[in-house]
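Annotated sample (chain length 252).
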Amino acid sequence: MRTLITCCVLLLATLGYSGSLALDKEALTRAITGPDRDVTDYVRDAVRKPVEVLDFLGLEPGMTVLDLYAAGGYYTFILSKAVGPNGIIFAQNTPRGLRFEEDRQDITQGEALEAKIQQGNLTNVSHIVRPLAEIALPPISIDMVILAQTLHDWYNPQPARVLERLLQVKALLKPGGVVGITDHIGLEGRDNRSMHRMQKQQAIDIAEQAGFLVVGDSDILNSRINDHTRSIFDPRLNRNTDRFLLKLQKPE
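Output written by the structure step:
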């Protein structure tokens, strides 16, 4: 049955969406403050500003969206509500990634995401547990990709790997499709790898190498109180890190 459902979702994704409705920010805000949402995710919203981020990226109801390395599903839940019943969300993870503990530290990320899908009745979400290179989604079937706070983990150990993966993402996107990237800002000359940070210009450069257009650069996730010399996990930062937000577009 699960295989049949996945095949149907893939077929719908290839058909695309025909709407051009702007994101209803007030409706989305109401949808993500209900009792069906994990309270540990809700408390992150003040820092992560998901409604503002998705509005900046131009997300619309009915879109097909890939939540790349969805982890415990923070954005998966929000995206599901944002695209509505006519939209489709693919939440991608790797088996290794799902073994990590969620912030609550009493469940793994895999358990957290599956619980959110069930408790939130997220019927438009399909959870894909395989590497990006083996994701098995049709080419040019995705309207938007969300890559939240992950690019630094790809870039710092091996920048060439980022280029390879961005090219894979580009192949999945429809012409004009969008990639939204958020990440923790690092400074030149610092040990950004150990602090889980990266320079914004590094993200821009590698995106342009992959053939993307950088069509948006927002400061809505900037935090003036952030200390860039500390790891993002330093409890003194309380997860309130200074972050960049980029909007990439696949050429038409």
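Annotation: The beta strands are 64-67, 88-93, 125-129, 142-148, 173-184, 213-218, 243-249.
Annotation: The first helix runs from residue 2 to 15.
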